[in-house]
Amino acid sequence: MPLSAVIEARGLSKVFQTTVRQPGLAGALRSLVSPRRVDKVAVQDVDFSVGRGELLALLGPNGAGKSTTIKMLTGILTPTSGEALVAGVVPHRDRERNAHNIGAVFGQRTQLWWDLPARESFEILRDIYGVPEERFRERIEEFDGLLELSEFWDTRVRHLSLGQRVRCDLAASLLHDPPVVFLDEPTIGMDVVVKEQVRRFLRHQVEERDRTVLLTTHDMTEVERLAERVVLINHGRIVLDGSLQEIRRRFGGTWQVRATLADPADVEAVEQGEGVGGPVPLPGFAGIGVLRREGPRVVFGPVGEDAPTVHEALKVIIGRFRVADLALEENDLEDVMRAAYLSDVPAQKGQHQATVASASNPASTAGRPTSTSAPVGDSASDSASTPQGG
Ligand SMILES: Nc1ncnc2c1ncn2[C@@H]1O[C@H](COP(=O)(O)OP(=O)(O)OP(=O)(O)O)[C@@H](O)[C@H]1O
User: Fold this and answer.
1) Residues of the signal sequence (predicted)?
2) Which of 59, 139, 141, 260 is the most buried (most CB within 10 A)?
C-alpha cells in the first residue's frame, strides 16, 4: 500500500439479497407470501489503494461491480465485509465527515436542483458546505474558465443539455474543495469536444490541485488520456491492478515492428536467429523475436508471457540496430480490453499485480490492429514513441 494512500479498500465485499419471482400466477402468489431470497455477490474481496494526486480508472464489463465499489467508498452502501477508508474516514460509519472529504459525480444522475437555475444550485451547495464567499467566487471563476459554465448559468437544470448538466455537476462536486473525487461514468453520452473539455478539467484537478480521483468509464480513449493506473474488475473480483502498459502486455500480446535494417551485418545477425513458425527469440532481446525477414526488412514480434509492449520493443530495436525505415502495429485498447474482459481469470488474493491473470493468449482473438509508420533518423524514436495508446 502506498504510504500516502487516500483511498483504501481491504477485502471489500458486497452481497445483495434479491428475491426471485417464481413463474406463473401461483408462483407470483407464493413469492408474495414466502419470497425466495438469493444472494447476489456484487463485489468480492477487493483490495486496492489510490495515492494522493493519483487518478485511478476502475474498469470492467457491465455488471462487474464498479458502481457498487464506488457506492461503498462514498458511504452510500455498507459493505457486507471488509473495510473501506477514504481520507482517513470509514465512509458508511461517518457519512457527514466523508461528505466533506469527497466529491462525487454519477454521470446518469444529478445532485443539482432540477427546477432551479444552475447558479442557485451552486449557492445552496455553498451554504450547505459553508464555503466562504471569497473562496466560492474564486472556485466558480476557476471552474468557469475550464468548463465554460457561465453560458448556461441562469438556465434551469432541467433544461440543460446532458453535457452542460454534467459540467455543472462536476463543478458542484468540487465547490467544497474535497481532496477525493469519485466519478462514475462522468462523460457518458457527451460529444467529443465536451469530453475533451472534461478530461482537461480532470487532469487539472489531479495535476494542479493534487486531488485523488477514482473514475469508472467504458471509454477507452478516456482511459488512455487520463489514467496511469487501472484496476480491472470482473464478476466482482480484481483481475489486474497495474498500468495500461501492463494490461497491454498481459492481454494485448500481438504487435509487430517492421524494421528495414540499414546495416547488412545486422541483417546477417538477425538471419541467424530466423526460423519457421512463431517468432524466434533473439538472443539478448528479452521477449522479442523475429517473425519473418523480407530482404533487409525484418518483422519483429513478441515472444512468451513476459513480452514487452510494442513501444518498449521499439526502443530496444532502434537502440540495437541502425534502422532505415520502420512501421508498427498493435491492437487498439478496445481490443485489448475485450480480451481482458473475456479472459475472466480472477486474481488470487494478495497477488493481483499485473502478473496474475494468466489468459491463454487472449489477444490472438482480438483483431483490428492500428498501425503507425515512423520516419527514420533522429526523429524515429520520437515519432515512434508517440503512443497510439498506452
Ligand atoms: N441493489 C442491488 N440489488 C441486487 N443486485 C444488485 C444491486 N446493485 C447492483 N446489483 C448487481 O451487482 C452486480 C454489480 O453491479 P454494478 O452496478 O456494481 O456493476 P457495474 O460494474 O457498475 O456495471 P455497469 O458498467 O453496467 O454500470 C450486477 O450483477 C448487478 O446486477
Assistant:
1) none
2) 59
